[in-house]
């Protein structure tokens, strides 16, 4: 066990959501073990973010402003690159933490020098703040190459990473159209152990249909999955590669179902041929049924 006292920096990217970022910040300031610094990255808000706190705090707080938006990944990278802490924690502006999150995760790093990343479980909320369900953390240890099959770690807001690991891996890839977090978790898992804190300490707000949450559209997620398969194809077992490609086709079919049922059905058949999956087929057929229920008509034109 290390005797070095680890310091912690918290990075909060935000854009045009001053009220939400105040709630996120308040959850950081309410931690049982205080952060050593908090960095808010204002990613080109129309009105520069101004943080007016009702109470004085002992935690150093900085606001870094991008005059134009660089995107969520670049904003997070700018934040951790400016940070001084041994451990970097990220928090999206519309999420928030339970008070013991920071203390629980720092303890895991102190217990094992081979751990490069610690994550927590998450409580999923709808746009109105109602709890939908909880996901407890399970995966731990050396996750490579099993993490290539799916994201075993979860959302950025639940993760803490050694700063040295971010330097080694290069941080988030801003060229990825989506899933930048998953891509980073994969790269970290190749060389470092992953641990969880045993709890469910992050509150995650599910994006709404009109949300401007830092993230990507369904099509960008599909493109990102294609990029991940291409990027790590040589490390994937053939079955994993085929299953992931089938999943991408199923997601495409789900989008196509809203406009062109025949095209969607053809894409679904390609997915089934590549890797039969009842859940993929059910999702596409459900989207086709939902499209029919709202009166959309199939368009046979390509």
What are the SSEs and their pairings?
Elements: E1 8-14, H1 18-29, E2 37-43, E3 61-66, H2 72-82, E4 87-90, E5 96-97, H3 101-111, E6 115-125, E7 131-135, E8 159-162, H4 163-169, H5 180-189, E9 193-205, H6 218-232, H7 238-256, H8 261-274, H9 278-293
Parallel strand pairs: 1-2, 1-4, 2-3, 6-9
Antiparallel strand pairs: 4-8, 5-9, 6-7, 6-8
Helix pairs in contact: 6-7, 7-8, 7-9, 8-9
- Number of strand segments: 9
Helix content: 25-40%
Q: What proportion of the residues form beta strands (DSSP E)? A: 15-25%
Termini separation comes to 61 Å
> What's the CATH architecture of the largest domain?
Alpha-Beta Complex
DSSP summary: helix tally: 9
CATH homologous superfamily grouping of the largest domain:
Spore Coat Polysaccharide Biosynthesis Protein SpsA, Chain A
Number of domains: 2
Which CATH class of the largest domain? Alpha Beta
Q: Which stretches are low in confidence, meaning pLDDT under 50 for 5 or more residues running?
A: 209-216, 296-302
Note the main sheet.
9 strands, mixed
Task: State the secondary-structure class.
Answer: alpha/beta
SSE order, one letter for each helix or strand: EHEEHEEHEEEHHEHHHH
**CATH fold description of the largest domain:** Spore Coat Polysaccharide Biosynthesis Protein SpsA, Chain A
Radius of gyration: 21 Å
What is the residue-averaged pLDDT?
Answer: 90
Shape: globular
């Amino acid at each position: 066990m290390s005797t070095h006292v680890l310091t912690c920096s918290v990075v909060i990217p935000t854009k045009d959501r001053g009220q939400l970022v105040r709630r996120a910040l308040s959850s950081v300031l309410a931690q049982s073990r205080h952060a050593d610094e908090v960095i808010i990255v204002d990613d080109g808000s129309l009105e520069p973010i101004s943080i007016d706190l009702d109470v004085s705090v002992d935690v150093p707080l900085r606001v870094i402003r991008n005059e134009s938006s660089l995107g969520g990944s670049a904003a997070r990278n700018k934040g951790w690159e400016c940070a001084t802490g041994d451990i970097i924690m990220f928090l999206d502006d519309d999420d928030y933490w339970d008070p013991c999150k920071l203390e629980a995760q720092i303890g895991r790093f102190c217990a094992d020098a081979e751990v490069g990343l610690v994550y927590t479980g998450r409580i999923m909320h709808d746009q109105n703040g109602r709890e939908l369900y909880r996901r407890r953390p399970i995966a731990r240890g050396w996750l490579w190459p099993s993490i290539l099959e799916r994201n075993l770690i979860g959302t950025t807001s639940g993760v803490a990473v050694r700063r040295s690991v971010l330097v080694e891996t290069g941080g988030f890839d801003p060229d990825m159209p989506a899933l930048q977090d998953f891509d980073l978790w994969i790269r970290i898992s190749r060389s470092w152990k992953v641990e969880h804190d045993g709890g469910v300490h992050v509150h995650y707000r599910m994006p709404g249909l009109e949300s401007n949450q830092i993230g990507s559209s369904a099509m960008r997620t599909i493109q990102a999955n294609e990029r991940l398969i291409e990027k790590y194809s040589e490390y994937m077992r053939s079955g994993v590669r085929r299953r992931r490609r089938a999943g991408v086709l199923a997601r495409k079919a789900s989008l196509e179902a809203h406009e062109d049922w025949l095209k969607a059905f053809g894409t679904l058949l390609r997915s089934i041929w590549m890797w039969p999956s009842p859940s993929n087929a059910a999702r596409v057929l459900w989207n086709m049924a939902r499209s029919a229920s709202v009166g959309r008509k199939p368009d046979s034109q390509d």
